[in-house]
Design brief:
Structural class: alpha+beta
Length: 336
């Protein structure tokens, strides 16, 4: 029996009774606790313009590329305008002929075109239809519009994205030529659980950290709460995001929402350990670690709020060195 091998290294080893454990402590006081909810979201631009040509013509020039910063009114691209100009000239000639026809019709009715205010409205409308003037005017307006839209200009200031067309290829009126994204009006869309909705309100502060750039933290503020719970029990939230040059449309981010929960006992998460399946916090009394059962409440990334029947304001709570402690274990408090 005495030859039994000793058990392999235990995960938790008991300290000798006469060897005080080195610990660090914090004073238990009531402070304003910032409750934190963590969710995943996507960066979206509040303003995105879609640019497309109105006619199918050969693209003559492209003045920008993806990622180019453009200002409102700046030229983006233009089409070959030969056929469009020719169409406008034809429409102009047709309009001139229609104007002569209109004059003939009015003269036949005893009126002159140079005094249109003297022509009754009913007579004028009938004369325009009979002479083809309305149709010619419509064709001229459309030809003028097509020629004007042969040059794409930026309707807003922003960044060019999704530009895939090449010069000397045919434009497609049914496809978007490119997007202009206003990167100074970004927002983040994220979801929270239905039972977390009570912790969020309009104007709450948020912090956004892109998964691809974890060291980048950008502040924001909740601007929209959709009053609808989807089939998965989620509620959609939107928050405005402060401008940062490294944030782009569609970027996946980690969103932390903060809201003050009032005065609470707050301790670091490292101060709470499990003993027999229950949460325990050790306090220092006369150089010994005293075992206290607690219940944790709200939490954020680094802290818990707690309640405990045996705790009181001003207790010295052990925050490190508590993994191997037992009730009344001798401890040596280290000052940071």
């Amino acid at each position: 029996q005495s030859n039994k091998k000793e058990a392999p290294n235990e995960t938790v080893q008991q300290l000798p009774q006469d060897a005080p454990a080195d610990v660090t402590t914090t004073t238990l006081i009531s402070v304003d606790f910032e409750h934190e909810l963590v969710s995943n979201g996507k960066i979206k631009a509040q303003t995105v313009a879609e640019l497309q040509f109105q006619t199918g013509e050969v693209i003559a020039k492209i003045f920008v590329k993806n990622g180019s910063q453009v200002k409102k009114g700046q030229k983006i691209a233009e089409l070959d305008t030969y056929s469009l100009q020719n169409r406008l000239n034809q429409a102009k000639d047709a309009l001139s002929r229609a104007r002569l026809e209109l004059q003939d019709v009015l003269i036949g009715q005893g009126y002159k075109l140079d005094s249109p205010e003297a022509v009754p409205e009913e007579i004028m409308q009938l004369a325009k239809v009979k002479s083809g003037y309305n149709s010619a005017q419509t064709q001229f307006d459309m030809a003028s519009y097509d020629l004007e839209k042969a040059t794409l200009v930026a309707p807003i200031s922003g960044v060019v994205a999704n530009l895939f067309a090449k010069p000397h290829t045919l434009s497609s009126p049914s496809e978007v030529f490119c997007n202009i994204i206003d990167t100074r009006s970004l927002e983040v869309e994220f979801t929270v659980l239905e039972n977390e909705l009570g912790f969020i309100k309009m104007g709450d502060n948020v912090k956004i950290a892109p998964f691809s750039i974890p060291d980048l933290i950008v502040n924001g503020r909740v601007t929209e709460i959709n009053p609808w719970v989807d089939e998965n029990g989620m509620v959609q939230i939107k928050a405005s995001v402060g401008y940062h040059a490294r944030l782009v449309e569609g970027m996946n981010v980690r969103v932390s929402t903060f809201r003050s929960a009032g005065k609470q006992w707050v301790i670091p998460k490292s101060a709470v350990v499990l003993r027999t399946g229950k949460q325990v916090v050790f306090t220092v009394v006369d150089g010994k670690a005293i075992w206290n059962y607690v219940d944790s409440g709200l939490e954020n990334a680094t802290q818990y709020t707690i309640t405990g029947e045996t705790l009181k304001e001003g207790d010295e709570v052990i925050v490190t060195g508590n993994i191997n402690l037992a009730h009344e274990s001798p401890v040596n408090t280290i000052t940071n």
